[in-house]
Amino acid sequence: MSTDYQQAREALGARMRELRLSAPGGRLTGTQLAQRLGWPHSKVYKLENGQQTATPEDLRAWADGVGQPGVFDELDARLKGFESHIRSWRRQLAAGHRPVQDSWNVEVDRSKAIYAWEEAVVPGMLQTADYARHIFLRYADLQGTVRDTDEAVRARMKRQAWLYGPGHRFHVLVWEAALHALVCPPAVLASQLDRLIGTIGMDTVELGIIPLGAPLKIPTANGFWILDERLVIAEDWHAELWLDDADSVAAYLRVWHTLRESAAYGTDAQNVISRVRRTLNIR
């Protein structure tokens, strides 16, 4: 579980403890509150110490139990804040990769312009089915999650229909290192690189490749996507971050535009991809 997520959960628990100790009818012990709510005492302990994530129903019961029903909205806002912005992989992938892809599809379908940066893999919107299949298998093995690979691949391929919709524009930057990464068999990677070359010139896709030797104004950190300048989705090993506050979106846009200054486009981008393709020695 992410450090930020855990800190937010502990902060919520501390606030709940504060409310218990300042109950209008007099300070309540954990045992007294548990009896009042019909809960085991261990649940009160775990919630207050950030060892269990409260549900909205738990929070409403707590607010009523400590005689302060009006604080429910505050508690619920705290819960929604860390639940929606820090989405741990452990929780997201409990049912497999398909539900995660479905959530992405909803947000992509709402969007007209997408800005993406990927430093380690080919972006999902431009992946072949075979390449996507290997990516999902790698992550399923890493996380020890359900292998719903075929369903996840179909959901990702469905999302690519967005590229052919009117008024859509995909501005994407890829570091050359991602083109070399053998996260799949060489033949699969070769086909993937052919697919990338084929996207150059599409009227809905602006593909920039940052060559390994290009001067950089900032380091190539984790990949992220910006949807309609309203939502940023950034990926790390422990979680996805979904950020919709204006300051965060503006910061990621600055990063994207700074990286863009190092990118090759058009024929120059095609030459970079073709050069990598030739190193695979596959026809």
Question: What are the main properties of this structure?
Answer:
283 residues; 7-stranded mixed sheet; alpha/beta; Endonuclease, Chain A; 434 Repressor (Amino-terminal Domain); 13 helices
Commentary on this structure:
The structure is a single chain. The longest helix is centred in the N-terminal third of the chain and has 19 residues. The chain is built from 13 helices and seven strands. The radius of gyration is 23 Å and the shape is elongated. Helix 4 runs antiparallel to helix 5. It is 53% helix and 13% strand. It has 283 residues and is an alpha/beta fold.
What order do the helices and strands come in, and which of them pair?
Blueprint lengths: L2 H19 L8 H8 L3 H8 L7 H10 L6 H14 E3 H4 L5 H12 L3 E6 L10 H15 L5 H11 L9 E7 H5 L5 H14 L5 E6 L13 E4 L3 E5 L3 E5 L2 H15 L5 H14 L4
Mean pLDDT: 93
The tally of helices reads: 13
Query: β content, as a range?
Result: 5-15%
Secondary structure tally: strands? 7
Number of domains: 2
Q: What is the CATH topology classification name of the largest domain? A: Endonuclease, Chain A
CATH architecture of the largest domain: 2-Layer Sandwich
In brief, what are we looking at here?
With 283 residues, this protein is of the alpha/beta class. It has helices spanning 3-21, 30-37, 41-48, 56-65, 72-85, 89-92, 98-109, 129-143, 149-159, 176-180, 186-199, 246-260, 266-279; strands at 86-88, 113-118, 169-175, 205-210, 224-227, 231-235, 239-243.
